[in-house]
Design brief:
Oligomer: homotrimer
Helix content of chain A: over 70%
Number of strands of chain A: 0
Number of helices of chain A: 8
Shape of chain A: globular
Largest sheet of chain A: none
Number of domains of chain A: 1
Structural class of chain A: mainly alpha
Order of helices and strands of chain A: HHHHHHHH
Radius of gyration of chain A: 17 Å
Strand content of chain A: under 5%
């Protein structure tokens, strides 16, 4: 299982760029809602777009982390923030495409994260966790810095962590079993994206306990 | 100073499991209080239970981090979240046992963290810091994600960081001096747990400055 | 490009100590404003003073991180918290000196961070990012733990990230081109400090989008 080369590498980087842009949009938009300045827009865009991959590389020990070596990712994320600055009047009409782009990013990051973890000798269950975190970590960091509870944890949220975890588990198992060729991984990534989009359109949600169900306060 | 084997390893893992469960409870319970869904309960349980150990391994360079390799910890943390989901009606009556379990976790994680840091060539003062962080790091991350100021920093908090730091310092010194056999480390861990429980029962607290004592605002 | 020795090393450590103290002050003062106890003051002082360097070392893979090995930094940060505890009555009159000290820290950390990243084989663009993060990372972590949006991202903030990024970029380019001797790096660090102080005195600010400019809510 090696890094892809040739047109495969190009295809992968095109999809990663789409994902990075969509993640950067969500960071820059939240920065505006939270009354941050353009430094905050750029900062939150970079954190959202590269934070998940940084967490992955830190936890598996692949340092310097990829976003520093393949620094085009940092520039794409900054480009995403610049696009929000220039195009904000039209972004509301682009809600649906941005959802699709974000879902593409979620799928490819979850699958790639699991694959990279297995290659760094992380056992399959750990690799599934790493892949999931690669997909959702940037958004969690974005929300923490914006002083929000992570969107993926909130009661009103649609499925986000769940498709990432399922896809990362499947990719992790496939690579571990030696079936992890690029066709299989691309199909898994596509299924993650499809499940994410379906969850938004069909209003899927996981259950919650009522707050009143617990009557103790622990600090 | 090697990793323990045989029944010693089993005893250690039993106590670590108790600590992981207690930490996972506190994460899952806070998730419910903060109106998160079951994904948030599972997420905050895993973060609280494994976050301190992950910080330890990242700072000392022991990667891939232990929770990915010894992935039973991730599953135990998820099990803790599941127990909260199933048993929440009875958890309020279990307040005292959970306090004791949490204190056991604090003791063993602080001591183990300091020991592991020394083994990775961290000097004793640094190792004491690492051990303390292993004990409290998961809870700090839990509170940051739940949009709270860390409980261990709050005015109304009982002693938590202080016993962890004292125990980690003692363990660090013991291992550095070559006295760090399992009997000594177990006694130190027990003292940390005892001090933590005593602090809650006897309402020990560290002092605070009054907010009015400072009259400048710095950003 | 080696680590400095002799009086150069002493000069560098004197300036780093000034920076660590100033960063520790800002952490301890925010802890008081946020109604934390003395544990919170010490904790936030250490996080603010050493957090940026820890992020740098984690991202470039220089572990165990410097603050654990050169543990005098942890003690200086604790000393900074102790000074706030003892001298808080007079700190309001020291607003200007503290601003200067903080600016010195920003300059030296940004430049040193970029230099260290280049030495760990990070390409120049990545190294500029690392240097910037070394300068601002501690403050971002401080604000996240204090439940604030990072000061460097806020609308009303003066320039802070921008001088750090410019200085880190210059230092990164200089070291990469082989011009990174200590005279050049010291001049760059001085310019960062000067720009930071000027931004506060002359009320420089970066622009922001109006919140009303975007009409979508994305989670």
């Amino acid at each position: 299982m090696e890094e892809p080369t040739g047109w495969l590498a190009v295809v992968r980087e095109v999809f990663m760029t789409i994902g990075i842009l969509a993640f950067a949009f969500s960071g820059a938009l939240l920065a505006v809602q939270k009354r941050m300045d353009v430094v905050g827009m750029a900062g939150l865009a970079v954190v959202t777009a590269t934070g998940g991959g940084m967490m992955r590389d830190l936890l598996i020990g692949a340092t310097p982390v990829a976003a520093l070596v393949d620094w085009w990712m940092l520039l794409v994320a900054l480009g995403g923030a610049a696009l929000v600055l220039l195009l904000h009047r039209w972004l509301s009409r682009l809600d649906r495409p941005v959802l699709v782009f974000d879902a593409i990013g979620l799928g490819i990051f979850a699958v790639e994260g699991a694959r990279k973890a297995i290659e760094h000798d992380v056992p399959p269950v750990g690799a599934a966790f790493v892949g999931m975190l690669t997909g959702i970590g940037g958004g969690v960091l974005r929300d923490a810095l914006a002083n929000d509870i992570p969107a993926v944890f909130r009661k009103e949220s649609r499925l986000y962590l769940v498709p990432a975890l399922l896809g990362a588990s499947a990719a992790s198992a496939a690579v571990w079993l030696g079936w992890g060729n690029w066709v299989v991984l691309a199909i898994i990534a596509g299924l993650v994206s499809a499940m994410r989009i379906a969850s938004e359109l069909l209003r899927w949600r996981v259950p919650s306990l009522k707050t009143e169900a617990i009557d103790i306060v622990r600090d």
